[in-house]
Amino acid sequence: MSQPGPPRNLQKNGWAKFIAGFGYAFHGLWYALRTQVNMRVHISMAVLAILLGILLRISSVEFAIVFVVMSTTPWQRPPKTWRQVRYY
Length: 88
Description:
Layout: H1 14-35, H2 37-55, H3 60-71
Helix pairs in contact: 1-2, 2-3
């Protein structure tokens, strides 16, 4: 079964490329959600954190902290050199 690919960028101007970039990003996010269990868990916990923040009426500063924590993985050590980066 053929999956539709990301939108094709037929125009050459910068605005069209910028908008097409969102299409590529959402296509990649959808692919990750369909194929990666850890991504589904991460998104589920992020949605839960946002809903709890709304329910508990946390401040905008606390929401900013929640968003920073959701988007980082402090236990993941960056590679020492670029040669250690694996591309699958």
